[in-house]
Amino acid sequence: MQDQFRDFVIRAWQPQDRQVAAEVIRSVLAEYGIGWEPDGADRDVYEVETVYLQVRGAFWVVEQQGQVVGTAAFYPVNRGVGTVEIRKMYLLPQVRGKGLGRWLLQRLEQEIAAQGFREVWIETASVLKEAVKLYESGGYLPATGIETERCDLIYSKVLQPEQ
Questions:
Q1: How far is CA 157 from each of CA 2, 24, 32, rounded to the nearest angstrom?
Q2: How far apart, in whole angstroms, are the C-alpha atoms of residue 3 and residue 100?
Q3: Angle at 58 between CA 155 and CA 17, to 5 degrees
Q4: How far apart are CA 40 and CA 137, in angstroms?
Q5: Cα(46)–Cα(22) distance, integer angstroms
Q6: Which of 5, 70, 85, 131 could join 62 in a cystine, given CB atoms 3.0 to 4.6 angstroms apart?
Q7: 9-59 tens-digit pLDDT
Q8: Do the beta carbons of residue 24 and residue 32 sit within 8 Å?
Q9: What 3-state DSSP class applies to 73?
Q10: Residues 68, 12: contact at Cβ < 8 Å?
Q11: DSSP tag of 148
């Protein structure tokens, strides 16, 4: 997968991205006072091949001028038939406010629908106010069943077949 939004290149994760993707995510979490959990909620960043790629999921990196400035991912979950969870959608501060997050969420939904999945779940923390606003304005509805300890909000959305 490779795509472009303005001067950003969105591409499939490669093994050489492991450390820099982890650093982007750790940095954004720290910005909001959320702890990095390499042995817990963030372990998947070090196990992209098995957690995402081997189970029909995807993990993307966002680059600007050759530098990784964001990540986004999804993988199937057992919350119903044809269901995925969007995870690890993080953008560094300097690239926010440019429409990239909205575009990225829509692009994830397109890819998810193209693979035959129909329902999307997202867990997040209320302190991530921009993300919460993005999900709510994107048609995600509050749900129940939070599984990640550091999250206090969960949303779901049923995708339309024509997406």
A1: 25, 27, 25
A2: 12
A3: 115
A4: 29
A5: 8
A6: 70
A7: 999 999 999 999 999 999 999 999 999 999 999 999 999 999 999 999 999
A8: no
A9: strand
A10: no
A11: S
